[in-house]
């Protein structure tokens, strides 16, 4: 039986090197490209024939747009509209990456910490730059809890700084760990279906149920990644 972790192996498709640097086009690169193409195709097809009475495809596209638009309005407020392209792109990229991973014999690039951390780092750096651009050095007041006595600042400020710096770690690990654990569990239980023969009906039923749960988790993780990004932007704009 193949190892349940074999599905996460990054394999080169087009080997490329520049000196000592490996820039090969891998299965991870392929599925990231597919996620971008499918997300773009989904939106283009939905908006191509815009009508007053939308069809099913157009309705689905509009629902996705309104879902993220409403999320931004609820978490950030009217000022958040200017960040819609970034937030919407993150949501679609993570969602399609997660959903592609549910296809048998595919590859889940969101199950790799290097991918999720890169996205989280971009969000973290961008939000920090935004906070400095809007508030200047007043941004440092973010690390002083309002109403706290001065004598407690030496204790509270390091805690707040550590909490802030851990954002990209928690944001990336949450997505990576959920996708990794879910797919590993599916692979392990699916292995019992064939090894148990006729008695594999029960594991098969569990796999079907877990697959449905994993699809839900795939959407929820995209949602969580997006809403946390919105909350970080709100903190950068309002400093609280």
The number of distinct structural domains comes to 1
Whole-angstrom Rg: 21 Å
Mean pLDDT: 87
**First and last CA, distance:** 52 Å
What is the N-to-C order of secondary-structure elements (H for helix, E for strand)? Answer: EEEEHHHHHHH
> What fraction strand?
under 5%
Low-confidence residue ranges: none
The residue fraction in helices comes out at: 55-70%
Number of β-strand runs = 4
Most strands sheet: 2 strands, antiparallel
Structural class: mainly alpha
In spatial order, strands of the major sheet run 1-4
Please work out how many helical segments DSSP would assign. 7
Query: Based on CA inertia axes, which overall geometry fits?
Result: globular
Record the SSE blueprint.
Elements: E1 12-14, E2 17-18, E3 21-22, E4 25-26, H1 27-48, H2 56-75, H3 84-100, H4 113-135, H5 153-165, H6 167-195, H7 201-238
Antiparallel strand pairs: 1-4, 2-3
